[in-house]
Protein 1
Amino acid sequence: MTTEETREMARVDALASELREHLRASASEIAQVHVHRAPSSAVQKIVSELLRERLGFGEEVVLTPEYGLSQQHAPTSTTGSPQAAGSWPRWSAAGRPPTITI
């Protein structure tokens, strides 16, 4: 590995250690919210806390048709495989797409 790659690996290892410690420290809190039928966002909020604070990660955004984007289903050929690249996905302001979570 190059010197830069070694430094990058050290940074990644340090962040992984922080995340691992954060998960250990949050285990009881995670266990309290990780129950049958609980929203996944309850656990995500706890787990992502370190990433939001340390790296500035943002919360997920759910895109709905009100945002004006829709994705049509990918067209398929008679063999069932997608058509040529560039022909899909097609985005338009019309239609009702499935909700997209980012």
Protein 2
Amino acid sequence: MIAAIPLVWRLGAGAALALLILAAVALWRQSLINDGWDRALQKVEKQNGQAVDAARRVQRSVDECYDIGGLWSQITGQCSR
């Protein structure tokens, strides 16, 4: 039965199977790349949020220092009167 199938058809089916496997591997690889990209973006967004929070805390400290008539030292990061 298989011998009745011409060689060209068998080669074509083998090539199609190879292309199908190659496409599946390429899609799997791309999904891994996308997952890594998403994790990297989440990490950067988290660090950005932490930096914004830290900057706001320092800004409040500076504002409070000036409100009580103090002088903020950028070198030491402290308020002096």
